[in-house]
Amino acid sequence: MSETPRPHRCGFVTLIGRPNVGKSTLLNRLLGEKVAAVSPRPQTTRNRIPGVLTRPDAQIVLVDTPGIHRAKGALNRYMVDVAEEAMRTNDAVALLIEAGIGPNGQVGISDIDREILEQLGAVKVPVFLVINKIDRIEKPILLPVIDAWRQQFDFAQIHPVSALKGDGVDALVDGFVEVLPEAPAIYPPDVFTDLPERFIGAELIREKLFQLLEQELPYAVAVTIERWQERSHDNLVVIEAVVHVERDSQKAIVIGKGGTMIKRVGEAARHDLEGLLGTRVHLSLFVRVERGWTKSPDGLRKLGYE
């Protein structure tokens, strides 16, 4: 007697949490592709980043969001609004936290975390707790962390994972599939994001700026693509991108002495772009001062944050 085929499931899962808890790393890990910028600096993600995970029995559209924090300034407010809106338009929500113990052996549940939980109280879909970075702690520490968070909220499921190393992520995906509605796939099986390549290209360049400049990097940096030309006759993509900063002093930092830093950024970004596109890339980077763009709604719109 043949076994009844399992129904196909498809839906949206939003990843939320404070800055720098590993949402973008988890998204990239689940997809096996880099679609979201990753760096050790908080607030790297600024937009809603969808990624598509397809397997025979399900398709999950995972939505990475900016870290939720107390917003100061137009750019920060924009990022928090993006995250909070994504929280309300989905089939499930995954709250990411860091595995760890606070001072005096207490589990650290911050005020921001409590405010997120309060907002989640109004959400009508299953809420997952994803305890990330378990590779950094001893396993016995997990039990008090799980117990403390379980007392704060009625989570549908709790999953300890390491987004960096991949521990626990298969079980997390299975958990997502369990709660998604029965529905056909939205995207073809070879699609891993619905973002245009130009957007991902700008994100990869911005990621390299964050990674290479580290603490020297001005927070007020954005990247836009001004030219994207695919030349089939010589298997080349020509990209011209602009790095936007707010002050002349920031421009000097990004360019570096004798242009050395912008050259390093370009080389690192070109390497990732060629891997993404599967073709040779000619990348030119320019740095432009957009005074006060992070504080102005017009400045945000001009650079694509709307």
Any low-confidence stretches, pLDDT <50, length ≥5? 38-46
Topology order in helix (H) and strand (E) letters = EHEEHEHEHEHHEEHHEH
Distance between the termini: 56 Å
The percentage of residues in β strands lies in: 15-25%
CATH superfamily of the largest domain: P-loop containing nucleotide triphosphate hydrolases
Which structural class is indicated by helix and strand composition? alpha/beta
Portion in helices: 25-40%
Q: What is the number of helices?
A: 9
Number of domains in the coordinates?
2
- Rg, Cα atoms, Å: 20 Å
Describe this structure as you would to a colleague:
The longest helix has 18 residues, at 260-277. It contains 9 helices and 9 strands. By secondary structure, it is α/β, with parallel strands linked by helices. It folds into 2 domains: 9-179, Rossmann fold (3-Layer(aba) Sandwich); 197-302, GMP Synthetase, Chain A, domain 3, CATH 3.30.300.20. α6 (197-213) packs antiparallel against α8. A 6-stranded mixed β-sheet has the order 2-3-1-4-5-6, with helices on both faces. The chain is globular and about 55 Å long.
How would you summarize what this structure contains?
The chain is an alpha/beta fold and 306 residues long.
